[in-house]
Write a structure and sequence with these properties.
mainly alpha, 80% helix, 3 helices
Amino acid sequence: MSPLKRKKLGKIRSQLDILDNSLIKIIKKRTSLVKKVLALKEKKNQIVDQKRIKLILNNIRKKSIKNKIDPKITNRIWKNMIWSYIDFERRNFKKK
């Protein structure tokens, strides 16, 4: 790789690092909201809502296409996020 390309790569990676820091803040906010949702659930079987998952993934697909983002990328990201939070809820569920 040429020195010029290496410099450009470094700048782009710095921008990605800044974006990652923003995503961490958003994930923190999302986690806070998930905790509030979890506090309202009375039974562990209320954690997974397949209907809601389908709705979310369908909406993300539409928004991805509208914004010219590969829907396979966003689908995979959201599925991972959803199932990560389901795991989080299962681990933190407290019987009432």
